[in-house]
Amino acid sequence: MTAAALSAARPRAAGNPWVVAAIVVVPTFMEVLDTTIAVVALRYIAGGLSATVDDGEWVLTSYLAANAVILPITGWLSAHLGRRNYFLLSIAIFTLSSALCGLAGSLGQLILFRVIQGLAGGGLQPSSQGVLLDTFPPEKQGAAMTVFGLAALIAPVVGPTLGGWITDEYSWRWVFLINVPVGLLALAACYAKLRDPDYLIAERLELKKRPFQFDSIGLSLLVIVMVSWEVMLSKGQEWDWLGDPFWRVQTLAICFTLGLVALIIWELRHRTPVVNFRPLRERNFAACCIIIFCAYAALYGASTSLPALLQLLFGYDALDAGVVMSPAGAAALLAMPIIGLTLGRGTDARWLIALGLLGMTIGNYWMSQMNLFISPGEVVWPRLVLVAGLAICFAPANMAAYLYTPKELRGAAVGLLSLLRNEGGSVGTSMAQTFNERRDQFHTLRLGEYLDPFNAAAHSFVGRAGAFFLQQTGDPMASRQLALQELANLRQQQASSLAYFDSFWLFAALTFVLLFLVPFMKRSVAEKGARLASE
Question: Which entry of 43, 250, 302, 524 is 20 to 30 Å from 324 by CA?
Answer without folding.
Answer: 43
